[in-house]
Amino acid sequence: MAHDIIIRNGLIVDGLLNPAYSGDIAIDGDTISALGKVDAKGHREIDAEGAVVTPGFIDLHTHMDAQIGWDPQVTPASWHGVTSILMGNCGVSFAPVRPQDKELLAEMMESVEDIPRQAILSGLSWQWSSFGEYLDAIEQCKPAVNVAALVGHAATRFYVMGPRAVEEAPTADDITQIAKLAGKSVREGAIGFSVNRLKAHRLPDGRCIPGTFAPEEELVAIAKEVGAAGGIMQSVIEAHPLDEEMRIMHRQLEAAGTHMLFSAPWLPGKNGDSAYQPAIDSMRAAGLNVTGTTQPRAAGFLSGLNTFILFSLRSKSESWQKLQRTPVPERLALIKDQAFREQLIADGKAMQLAEHIGQTLSSPKFGLPCEKTFWMGNAERPNYAHQPDQSLAHLAKAAGEHPVETWLRLQLESDGQGFFHVRFVNEDLSVLPNYMGADWVVPGVGDAGAHVSLIMDAGWTSFFISHWHRDTGTYSLEETIHMLTAKQNRVLGLPDRGALIVGNKADINVLDIDRVEERQPQRVEDFPGNAPRLIQRGVGYRQTLVNGEVILENDELTGTRSGVMLRNNTGA
């Protein structure tokens, strides 16, 4: 009897830390039916000689909630071996929603995640009110990858409290309704509930999004209902005061009796540990399940002619304002004009001097932080691993230039396509190997689908393989794949994904492991209304299969969309 697909002669890395071995994988329908030596034939046979065969990667921190409505191929994630995503992080989702409130949610997402409001309003069908109906609508889009979704606190709170949700304290009845609605959304299929405590996430009018200052009793009541419905919790927290934030998280976990996923950028603590470690130890001693997810490289904004993050951030100088106002395709010609470039340099120097002597414009900081800004290079592969002494400030000093001159020169040398990486999270890569290796930490936070014209970290899986496995040898092949698959799935608890096991769903990557890496970010205009975004391609992916169908081959999407909705308690 022939199998539907057989992947032949690959180096199989099962995701479970077992030693890699050479063998075949047989697939029938959406399921792995045999591993090892497969004597039968396949209707299709994939030659994996010289390749590594792994489970599909899981991305636990995306914001594809809007984009998936018009981009069911789910790029850039699907270019980087990701076969399952979790969206709805950080307290923001598009359901539940009352018909009259859809514009508010669109405006909130525009402000928090840099997705144009009009793109959201025109690109989504909005044929839903409840969270279950939203999941049905996304399922009808037939996404290329599997999708799990969290219901967001902001939408839930606004559904119950209306405009009062932004700044007013909830009544006891409000808290009861919010918690019950959270539980109802989980029973309708949400994988869990997400909370936002980060004050930087704001509405267009500058106020923090609903739920940011929710009282502890509200958070605990929600957690109790979500846990009772079988959902997980997700949170993005403030770093200060960290002890208080972790204490509240502890209480939420106790009430939920479920898993908590939280964004955990490196913060130094005592004795070389992370600042989170004492609280994590306390939670785990109490039998609570908690996982922190952290960027596997420095996360940061992209500065260049293709973004609005220029060398000047807030300068009132006419030259830099003119460059900011100029359409992106015309900026290169503008800086090629010697007279205009000299004016940019003069104003850039004055701007830096004003900052140095304590004068302010709209903010004390209105130029790039040159010590934290790094040139990503002109090669096909971007450089994310610069040492601190390779910053823009150091490049300028070595060249005998002012940083503004270096910034402009490198833009010219790259024909306006190059980017500087402005680090703001996990700036010191040297601490990451031990940190990410901790059993409660997973790599991630690529934010695919968010900050679309500012940040492009969605290729983090390719970086993890190319840098932490191949370039530095920090993690073995087995450890590397485990950290992208089964270790991630420990949070979602999907019973049939995250590992290459007979009976599991056939979410599989066939990798040229010596070639896997990212390509330079690019600016495209493919959102509704030709709105721009940044993308990043990957290479080294021979095939990616989702539920037994090939969605990507030789680094190109095939057009097949075989993903499913991963609804709570279904394992589907």
Give a written overview of the molecule.
The longest helix is centred in the middle third of the chain and has 19 residues, at 338-356. The protein is 31% helix and 21% strand. The chain folds into three domains: 1-56 and 498-514 and 540-557, Urease, subunit C, domain 1, CATH 2.30.40.10; 57-260 and 267-275 and 282-297 and 429-497, Metal-dependent hydrolases (TIM Barrel, Alpha-Beta Barrel); 301-425, no CATH class. Strand 23 and strand 24 (556-557) form a beta hairpin. By secondary structure, the chain is an alpha/beta fold. The model is unreliable at 356-364 (pLDDT under 50). The strands form five sheets. Strands 1, 2, 3, 4, 5, 17, 22, 23 and 24 form a nine-stranded mixed β-sheet that branches. Strands 6-7-8-9-10-11-12-16 form an eight-stranded parallel β-sheet, sandwiched between helices. It contains 17 helices and 24 strands.
